[in-house]
Design goal:
123 residues; mainly alpha; Arc Repressor Mutant, subunit A; 7 helices; 3 strands; 59% helix; 11% strand; arsenical resistance; HTH_MetalResp_TranReg; transcription regulation
Length: 123
């Protein structure tokens, strides 16, 4: 799937502000679940899930299941040119996700957030 990624496909995927924010958050945090995206971006779960599905179909993100949660990360099999575009976009525009990252950090550490946000428990 990722071998079919074209520049047009990559930039089309990143042209939506929610999808761009999702990708930038994943670059910063390495791995997040849907509830973390909803908290950070102040968007409803169906909207986040729909955008994650589009990013997954494009081959930009992959997911893994751990218990009841599905975690998303940047696809490590992306072509090097695509990894460079994503990295440079993040490095040159960290301010775009500074607010969402601050919101996540207020909730807690990366590994604790899904239990707090998804289950409502404070551990």
């Amino acid at each position: 799937m990722t071998s079919q990624l074209t520049p047009i496909g990559l930039f089309k995927s990143l042209s939506d502000p929610i999808r761009l924010s999702i990708v930038m958050l994943l670059i910063a945090e390495k791995e997040l679940c849907v509830c973390e995206f909803t908290e950070a971006l102040d968007e409803i779960q169906p909207k986040i899930s729909r955008n994650l599905a589009l990013l997954k179909t494009a081959g930009l993100v992959v997911n893994r299941r751990q218990g009841q949660w599905i975690y998303y990360s940047i696809n490590t099999q992306l072509p090097s040119w695509a990894k460079t575009v994503l990295s440079e976009t993040y490095n040159g525009n960290k301010a775009l996700v500074a607010g969402p990252l601050a919101k996540l950090n207020l909730v807690g550490k990366n590994e604790d957030r899904p239990q707090i946000l998804c289950c409502g428990s404070t551990k």
